[in-house]
Amino acid sequence: MTWQLRLLNAQLRLIAKPRIHRTATPQDAAKAVERACLLAAQPPFLRFIERPGGLCWISCGPCAPRRVLLYFHGGGFVSGSPWTHRGMLGRLSLEADIEVCAARYPLLQDAPFPAQFDTAEAAWVRLRALGYEPEHVVLGGDSAGGGLALALLSALCLRGEAPAGAVVFSPWTDLALTGESLRVNAHSDPLLPPGRIGELAEMFLADADPRNPRASALYGEYPGCPPVWVSWGETEILRDDCSRMADRLRAFGARVETEVHPTAPHVWPLFHGWVPEGDATLRRAGRFVHESLAAINR
Questions:
Q1: Residue 170: active-site member
Q2: What CATH number does domain 3-296 carry, 3.40.50.300, 3.40.50.1820, 2.60.40.2000, 3.40.228.10?
Q3: Is 143 among the residues known to form the active site?
Q4: 81, 96, 192, 264: which could join 268 in a potential S-S bond, CB 3.0 to 4.6 Å?
């Protein structure tokens, strides 16, 4: 662990985690994330364009034509946007040599489940209408958005329309909250307070079944699943959401690559430019995206 990561974990534990625990409303959480994103590192030559339909196109450097990463941001369904994640996605674009299409989906304070999944499906349909074949697209996401990306992956696999692959960081995949790490990592997680996750799940689901595969990707089916790359930290409360998700995908015959860090916080690639571990993970994720598209498009 680098000294930068050690310092980051200390700051998150002392400042961010208590602040998240005290946050009163979803609106307050959204404002806090918007403010925090002002400190995010921005790669040079970052290009951000939002087009009608809520699709935000992010690129950095030369990009291969007709190839795209369809990405869903995290934030517990109460915060975040393509704009807050633009720095990380610009860096991912640079590493993978492709454009990122980040979908702006409704937060739960604006619309409960299944509006988020419906928006994800609509983003896929829009890309198809723009001429992208499934083998031209890799799905991506982090945290709640990672779970959303995997839920979409399940729906696409079931109808024989699987993309070239998927890459997800610390995905939240089980809104039934059955993972043991929610309890055993309650203290060790430097960022997420476990007492709030049940509240988030309840607000998001609005009485829907927490095991609905459109909400909880862990309960989805993945026939003909393409390669998937998953990263998580051993100290995260969502550790079991991630590790069980990897096992679930392998049970359907998918090739799954994992990166498990012993001490990194939830979605540490967001801290690229500040901690070397974030930069290294984005390099590996970008290489996976690039190779997934190259392998299927030879």
A1: no
A2: 3.40.50.1820
A3: yes
A4: 264
